[in-house]
Amino acid sequence: MNTLLLFYKIYQNQDIKTVDYINWAFTMLENNCSSCSLNILSSLREPLNIFEVEDYFKRALSEMELQEPSYEECARYYILHLSEKILQDKNNVFEIVYDINKVIRDIDYPEDLEEWFIISDMVDEFQYGGNNFKLTKEELIATIIDEAKSQLKNNKKN
Asked: Rounded distance, CA 55 to CA 48, Å?
């Protein structure tokens, strides 16, 4: 698990599990990061104590001198993560667009993400309104996929 995704889950108080921290440790090791606490964290096995796991996580951050990213950094990365999900799962694009719009709302609708807000309106119109945009489902999905590709290209998710 990527550091920004993990912190997004932490910020959102999402159903964060001990395995999320362990997966983060493995990802960090795969990326040639190292610290004593990171090694210990990656080697922990069931039964896991969330307090012990979080303690080793915090120690690993400190030992590697990693700063806690801002909420907006994490949210923007999560939008890119959701953009990738759109490209992988074309059957749930409308739900993913709503998820993206929630994140954008949380970071006060930044101008560079305005297109997602417009697309969310298009989805609302298509599903619940009068379809004022006069789009077919296929055209709307294509628009969503194009924006997902554009976001990924412009932000080069690492």
From this structure: 12
